[in-house]
Amino acid sequence: MRELRGAGVSPAVFAPTGARPRLVLYSCPESMKKQKDKKIAKPARRARPASLKLKLRSSPARAILTKAAGTNPQRVRAILQKLDEAYPDVTCALVHENPFQLLIATILSAQCTDVRVNLVTKELFQKYRTPKDFAYADPNELEKDIRPTGFFRNKTKSIIGASKKLLEEFGGEVPRTMDEVLTLPGAARKTANVVLGTAFGIASGVVVDTHVARLSARLDLSRNTDPRKIEQDLIKIIPQEKWILFSHQLIWHGRKICQARKPRCIECNLERLCYSSDKTV
User: Fold this and answer.
1) Is 157 a catalytic residue?
2) CA–CA distances in Å: residue 193 to residues 14, 95, 210
3) Measured between alpha carbons, how far is 92 from 244 in angstroms, rounded to an integer?
4) What is the value of pTM for the model shown?
5) Contact by Cβ (8 Å): 108, 155
6) Residue 53: its pLDDT value, please?
7) How far apart are CA 75 and CA 79, in angstroms?
8) Going by C-beta distance under 8 Å and a sequence separation of 6 or more, which residues neighbour residue 113?
9) Among 65, 138, 244, 259, which residue is least crowded by beta carbons within 10 Å?
10) Other beta carbons less than 10 A from residue 50's beta carbon
11) CA–CA separation, 143 vs 86, rounded Å?
């Protein structure tokens, strides 16, 4: 066999004449070192167009984090004035005779219209008159009684559980603080605000149901979608003495005028103050 040496090339061994040559190459240590020392140039980063930067700055995700533009104090006062003109003395639409009935009716109103709840409670409150009646009711029978309101199994558990807790811990009376009402099964902040505000006149917060959430967005009073965050946005801009009435006013306005699918903007006295994309005029 013969060996061939060359600069930068390791020995290559060749087979005798007539045989298939076998070439073995090895990397040169010096060339490897030079390769490591060389810096690989990275491609230049393309600059974002100004239009794209503007889109990113005004994206919906970023807008949610910013304060709603419509919360200017002067504009908020104008909205409250218009609501007072249209709904000067509205109150809760749920028919009740006492705080306990209001508690039960509000639990039933989850994912159900107040009109349907009133139809159900008209007979329900004749059959079950006290917390004790509900606490020891036959669950299967109570489910049938409230079935038209939907989610009747969960609502039955909440009503029986809340009634028992009232008997065991509150002497059969509906408590008058937010923290205590929230301990009742089936009672979240919406329920607590309805009961405390309507039954006792205690302004503990703002009721946020589907109507209040929708109108808060359309009027640009809040850019949040979570009810708790919407409530926090509203209590910062609405005077506390208006919390109870304001909630009822938005609910009534949402039912009568600012409806979800086809808002009746031509009849709305807030039309000039509203710049929602949902407007129909």
Assistant:
1) no
2) 94, 16, 15
3) 10
4) 0.75
5) yes
6) 41
7) 6
8) none
9) 65
10) 8
11) 39
Q: What digits encode the pLDDT tens for the residues 31-72? A: 555 555 555 555 555 555 444 343 434 444 444 444 567 999
Q: Please write the tens of the pLDDT for every residue from 95-122.
A: 999 999 999 999 999 999 999 999 999 9
Instruction: Please state, in angstroms and rounded to a whole number, the distance separating the CA atoms of residues 174 and 135.
Output: 14
36 is catalytic: no
- Could you tell me which residues come within 8 angstroms of residue 89 by beta carbon, excluding any fewer than 6 positions away? none
Q: State which CATH number among 1.10.340.30, 1.10.10.10, 1.10.1370.40, 3.30.230.10 fits the domain covering 96-202.
A: 1.10.340.30
For the domain made up of 66-90+205-281, the CATH class stated in words is mainly alpha
The active-site residue, picked from 209, 220, 226, 229, is 209
Q: What is the pLDDT of residue 69?
A: 75
Domain boundary assignment for the chain: 66-90+205-281, 96-202
Contacts of 156 (CB under 8 A, 6+ apart): 139, 142, 143, 146
Q: pLDDT tens, 139-188?
A: 999 999 999 999 999 999 999 999 999 999 999 999 999 999 999 999 99
